[in-house]
Amino acid sequence: MSQPNSSTSATLKNYFLYLSLITVMLMAVYYFFKNQLPANADFIIPAFYVITSGSHFLLQRALTRDPKKFYNYFLAAMAFKMLAYLLFLAIMFLGFRGITMEFVAVFFSCYLIYTTFEILMLRPLMKKG
Fold first, then answer.
1. Tens digit of each residue's pLDDT (9 = 90 or more) over 52-85
2. Which residues, 6+ apart, have CB-to-CB distance to 52 below 8 Å?
């Protein structure tokens, strides 16, 4: 097993810190618009945090095994996230008997924010691999 270099480890540790910061900021924004959104929208930001953290954890573990295969691990992590998002949407659809356009707007906004964040944070690592 090879170990990732120190800049890779630092990037991955900073990733979790910045992910938490973005989540706190989004929760603060959500708090002000909560009355205008459907009840099931309460679960969107925590779900994105959990799914993105899970993906990050899997990526970090895989990277310690073989840093040269980072790109493959990144694609596998993205596939995991897409399936987790689909499962989340299915649970919301079945549990709340449908999904409103407001829910879709919040979900899509969070998807864009978290995906952009992930790509910006991990782009330097993709160039190395």
1. 998 888 888 877 787 777 778 888 888 989 999 9
2. 19, 81, 114, 118
List pLDDT tens digits, range 22-32: 999 999 999 99
Establish if 82 belongs to a structural domain: yes
| Nearest-angstrom CA–CA distance, 88 and 91 | 5
Enter the pTM of the model.
0.83
Domain membership of residue 1 (yes or no) is no
Q: Which of 32, 35, 55, 68 is nearest to 118 (CA)?
A: 55
Structural domain including 86 reads 6-128
